[in-house]
Specification:
Two copies of one chain form a homodimer. With 443 residues, chain A is an alpha+beta fold. The first copy, chain A, has ten helices and 15 strands. The first copy, chain A, starts with 5 loop residues before the first strand and ends in a 27-residue tail after the last helix.
Chain lengths: 443, 443
């Protein structure tokens, strides 16, 4: 893309409510979302609650031509649920896991297992460097007795720290996601004041969508009215925020939300409304300065790039060794757990026989029975905890491996000296015989 | 401090080996370290393995005049062990916890409980903005069979990501710490190549210290020769790394390490050798541009600063509510655990009576005995896990609160429009009646 003085960027954000088998009409809704995204061709698509990697991969396949670049952020036990699709090449990614995220024993709230985080990608919009962030903060289950408020405030604090400290080199900063905070909530004020991010709903020249920009509305058929009390009509908790820099002006010309239903479809995309913001960027940097700044962050001597590729390839190998090891350990934990469960059932079956068929003449071996049962429960508990731990380890290792693969891809493209039009093409093997640079996680 | 074209900065780094009651001569060594730091007056002191906050607070008291600014990074169950002391005001802090850090059941290795991380502080050296990082990576317990290698490689990967993404706005980047990697190890190459950081030992014009810059040496009386196999003389695993920017040149004029003993003292400061690097900074930024850049990151309108102080004060209150809540929960977990233990002992005492004194005429209630014992063990296990979890929550909340207090202090100083010479002075109440800005964690 050539350097332009004025650039239009369309950003999309949606909490997909993608809990497989639990969220209503999940596959159908993903199909609708994919279809819409392919048609709309937003520059940047920020998705939350894509809990299953399979669903991400389906979307990735569906959007291969409209959004050739994407990244899925892995974290926690289940995953962060965060995904980014982009029309522009993603040069770099980074994930920050919040230090606090609810309680593992509040399993019905599930936030802890998700491993909430903020994901960042660095991409170029024309000659500008854009840092794009996607996040999903801890849910608010009760407005009156919000026991997670301190956790959410700390998340907002860490979010603003992360954005502020990582965006010094960016011309444009865009944050989208489900913040689970009302516009005037403490965490929101903390975030906006500290970072200087501006709210596209407040700033937009033209708006089309729900009253007061609400993103969780009573009209949405997936929303139970009880959840919204005491806000009858709905609440605004999803945002697209943005800011420019000393060299780049940015403003929002148009913003829209969905309105609880989708024309020609029986139900909406999600329980949240989708947001779209049309941002206009105006750069004051001459073309040369722009490319200079680029080379500052990406050391472009071919020798150094090749060396980096070598080191990264070696690092990926090590991480893969760790992956196999963690997979084996998790498998062992699962197998031991299943054996513990089988032993428990066997014991119950044996116990059932004398209880049902025999009288008191043959004394029931109670001691052994209870000891064995306690052993089975201990095995089950320990293997369960180990399984969770290894799953988290796997997610972190996979996440690092994904990021390294993306980095190798970006470096190899640099090395070849020409842009790859289609990252889904057959992998092109670089001279050194390294792993190909394709972005597919299947690799 | 006035803007100078040439600036000399002395950086110190030491792994303090500060495990209370376990590390040899711990209090005496801390006393020696404090004395030396007060005398030497390095600009920046980077400490690792300060496992106890009490030891940090003692050091802070001892260094109150020589190093009025400091920060202790909290993380994990025990803490990250990372502390920074500085002669220059710390404007901002940020902590990144590595996603992988060993295994909780490898308790004798202890790394998981430490919550290894990289801490960052932003400070001004003259008119320059310096990002200073301190870190401690996972230990290598066996060179041949290093089962933690994937974890350490991922830590090095995350470390380079963190430094690269957070340092775009900095004129100078300094990293010190115990990387637990040899100079040519994969993680080290990954870190150095990607970030462009330079090794002060390699770059220094003049060196005085151990052969090959080693920091874990056989001559150190706290080191067992077995640990070093197959490296008879020692290894180099502690580093001070640095880089400048397009506007700032940096070079290392002198570097030194301790040599396994301290003159006039019976033993060395630690099992690691201490590093000192004298860096010379040469800035190409005119004074005006420098102050301009400053105001870019710190929005200086008094109204906005006051608003930020208000929001931060509110946020601190929320976090404190969370702190009290987590403390209460942890206390409950501990009390329940103690009750479980007491119940177990009581049961054992009761059981001992019939076994010892009575014969077979009074049958021993085995079933109840084993059921009760199983219950006790379940209580102990669950309360132990909860205790660990709440401790981690507390550490995170305390960490956020510390950072917020520091931020409020920095903002209030800005608001008052004059620098505070002594942050240990009696707290000065700002107009709004907010919490004082003193940096003491006792507050």
């Amino acid at each position: 893309m050539a350097n332009t003085d004025c650039l239009s960027v369309r950003v999309f954000s949606l909490n997909c409510w993608g809990i497989r088998y639990l969220s209503k009409h999940c596959p159908q809704r993903y199909h609708m979302i994919g279809e819409m995204l392919r048609k709309e061709e937003h520059d940047i698509v920020l998705l939350q609650e894509v809990w299953s990697e399979k669903d991400y991969l389906c979307l990735k396949k569906e959007l291969a031509t409209s959004h050739p670049y994407s990244h899925y952020f892995k974290s926690g036990v289940i995953g962060s649920g965060l995904a980014i699709f982009s029309k522009h090449r993603i040069h770099d990614t980074f994930l920050y896991r919040y230090s606090l995220n609810g309680y593992p024993y509040m399993a019905h709230h599930g936030d802890w297992f998700g491993g909430k985080a903020v994901g960042m990608v660095v991409l170029n919009l024309g000659s500008l460097t854009a840092n794009v962030y996607v996040t999903h903060l801890h849910a608010e289950y009760s407005r009156d007795k919000d026991s997670y408020l301190p956790h959410r405030v700390v998340q907002a604090w860490e979010l603003q720290q992360f954005i502020r400290h990582t965006s010094a080199g960016a011309d444009v900063v865009i944050l989208g996601g489900d913040l689970n905070m009302h516009p005037q909530d403490l965490g929101n004020r903390l975030l906006m004041s500290y970072t200087g991010l501006r709210d596209s709903y407040v700033e937009t020249a033209k708006f089309d969508g729900c009253e007061d920009g609400m993103t969780l509305i009573a009209e949405n058929p997936f929303i139970s009215k009880k959840e919204l009390v005491p806000f009858e009509k709905g609440i605004r908790i999803d945002y697209i925020l943005f800011k420019g820099s000393s060299s780049t002006e940015i403003h929002c010309g148009f913003m829209s939300t969905t309105k609880g239903s989708v024309p020609d479809h029986p139900f909406p995309y999600s329980d949240h409304e989708a947001l779209t913001a049309e941002l206009t960027l105006k750069s004051n940097i001459p073309e040369e300065a722009g490319s200079n700044r680029q080379s500052k962050t990406w050391d472009s001597a071919p020798g150094r790039v090749a060396e980096l590729v070598d080191i990264l390839t070696e690092a990926r190998t090590e991480v893969k060794v760790g992956l196999h090891c963690a997979e084996r350990m998790r498998y062992t934990a699962a197998r031991t757990g299943v054996m513990g469960l089988a032993l428990l059932f066997l014991e119950l079956a044996i116990a059932a026989v004398p209880w049902l068929a025999l009288g008191a003449e043959q004394p029931f071996p109670r001691t052994s029975f209870y000891l064995l049962a306690a052993l089975c429960f201990a095995i089950l508990l320990i293997t369960f905890l180990l399984y969770i731990f290894y799953t988290m380890e796997l997610k972190s290792l996979q996440g690092a491996e994904d990021q390294m693969r993306l980095a190798v891809g970006s470096l190899q493209e640099k090395l070849r000296g020409f842009p790859v039009a289609q990252p889904h093409n057959a992998p092109q093997r670089p001279p050194g015989g390294h792993k190909p640079s394709a972005l597919d996680p299947e690799e």
